[in-house]
Amino acid sequence: MSRKAAPEAPPAQEQLSLLVPLATPAPLAATQPASPPAVIAPTASLPAPVPPPAPRVYSVGEVLRAARTTLESRFADILVEGEVSGLKKSGPGHLYFCLKDGEASLDCVMFSREAGRLKFAVKEGLAVRVRGRLTLYEARGKFQMTVVEIEPTGAGALALAFEQLKARLGAAGLFDQARKRRLPFLPRRLGVVTSPQGAVVRDIIRIAHRRFPLPIIVSPAPVQGEGASLAIASALRRIEAVPDLDVVIVARGGGSLEDLWAFNEEPVARAIFACRVPVVSAVGHETDFTIADFVADLRAPTPSAAAELAVPVLDDVRLEVANLHRRTSRAASESLRAARHGMERARNRLGDPRRLLDERRQQMDDTVERGRRVLARRMAGARAELRAAETRLYRAHPQRRILEQRSALAAMRHRLEVAIRPALARRRHTVEAAAGKLVALSPTKVLERGFSLTQRADGHIVTRAADLAPGQRVHVRVRDGSFDAVVEKPAPKRGPT
Q1: Regarding the domain delimited by 180-312, which CATH topology (the fold level of the hierarchy) does it fall under?
Q2: Which of 73, 108, 194, 415 qualifies as a cystine partner to 251, CB 3.0-4.6 A?
Q3: CATH superfamily of 60-154
């Protein structure tokens, strides 16, 4: 987030005094020696007291700006150690976090222009030492620290960045042994990515030409300093586009961790991983290890050793070719001799080919004749089965069966109707008698004769007066409707009649 620059403010002592205005007491009237009371004329009056000056009222912005200027002037450049907590990264790349220890916590912000220069990733729980200034975020009245540098308090920043990038690229599969390729025995062209002014390129060319005079292509790139990693990655992409290129050596001489740091950057690792030809990493001395060494198809302890690994010795190649030629000639002679012996044995077993052809022709004629007889027998049997099937189909013609089933269905329907009529008559008489009884016993018929039906609120029918209590609500049904009632006094009990 961006903030406007604060206007010029007075010195800290003056600002603090502005925040606490002092009230000047009103001047006291001049005192005179005590004298006896005198008679005062009616027109005389005492002088009016002078009121104290009103304290100055400040706006919130003025108070916060004064406090921020005081903080920034007093703590303009300080170092603070603590543990990162509550780390958040905004869209533009600003880092927001707290520095905490066992006693307190301090809100911090690191803007993207400084965060983009970090060599390592700030993570939750990391113990760090930060440098910056204390300030006050006026929009929220929030006390915080603006950080310009972060350094791990454990391992160094470069070592931590190395381990973090190594873990991340390893998880992404850039170090898998299964993807590493073998170097060709005799490359057609050798590519070298290094500085054109250093002794490294001269050593590689000298050793390679001494061993085998093959074409060498150099793609120049700075090997240390700002932007070196991008330049090395670009040089690697340029040289892999050269046709007939079989091997690339990425090389640099020895130096400190800072000098070799360009080969620990992600752009170089990604470029080596994406290269279409095998890559040999020869960075630093034998004890130096970089990210490029883990990604490359082969690591050489020194640039000179890389040239020896990539290029064979011409005399050794000639000797190997001569040995292969001799062994190939002997193997070819043995194979030819064995083939001739095999052909002679096959010819002896084969005999006269014309006799074999005559035998095969006679065997073919016999086979054709047997096939004709078998086919004739099968055709005769199939015709007999077809005639039998026609006879069975005629006897079981569906139209005749349909007529028979229709006649049987009509007879069954007639019998069913004759059997159902008496049963229906009996059931009808039974239903009519039951309906008459239901009508005679229907409660509505009783209601029509002047009786009523009384129910309690729960729906139960009241059959005795003792079932009711005063104040209880009941529902009474009569012939032409119903109504609700309240029991006032139950009827006295009467003896049985």
Answers
A1: Rossmann fold (3.40.50)
A2: 194
A3: Nucleic acid-binding proteins (2.40.50.140)
